[in-house]
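So, can you check this record?

>
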Amino acid sequence: MLPTGPYREPAAALVRADVVLVTRRTASATSARARVQQVRDLAPSRPVGIVHLAPDAWQDLAGEKVAAPVGDVLAVTAVARPDDFRENVASMLEADVGLLAFADHHEYSDIDVRRIVTEASGRVIVVTEKDAVKLVPRRSELPDTRVMTQRLLWESGREEIEMRIGRALGWPVGEGS
C-alpha cells in the first residue's frame, strides 16, 4: 500500500476504501499496474486509478504566476527525496541546478535562511510548494525565490473515480469532473 511506512494501515484495510489511488513517484508503469492488480485482488469492487505528479509552472512566494528562472539556480528543499526535486527543476530549465537539502519536514530558522541566501550567491532560489508554505513569512529575506508547482497527471482510472467522488458529494451523475 502506498505510501508505505510503519504507521500505515495493512493492505487488508483496503476493503474500507471507497476508491484507491496508486501514486507513482519512482516506480515504473509496470510496477504500478502490478500494484493495481494487488489492490483489485484484495478489494475487487473498488475503483483503482494510477496518478503521478509532474512539474508544471512557476510562482513567486506570494503565489503569483511568474516566468521560469533564467540562468543557474539553487534548489532548496526539505523533502524526503531532494534529488528528485533537483531533477524535476533541471527537467524544466536549461541551467545548472545546485541543491541545498534539509531533513524532511524541516522548520526553517533564521540561520537556515541566511545560509540559503549565502549559498544562492545571486542565483535564483527554487523551492517546492511544501517548502514555500514555510518560507512565505520570510519572503522579504529571500530575494528572487520561485516555487515550482506540480500538477496531478492521471494514468488510469480517472473517469470512474471522479464519478464515485461526485456521487459521494451529491453531484448529478456524469458531472463529477
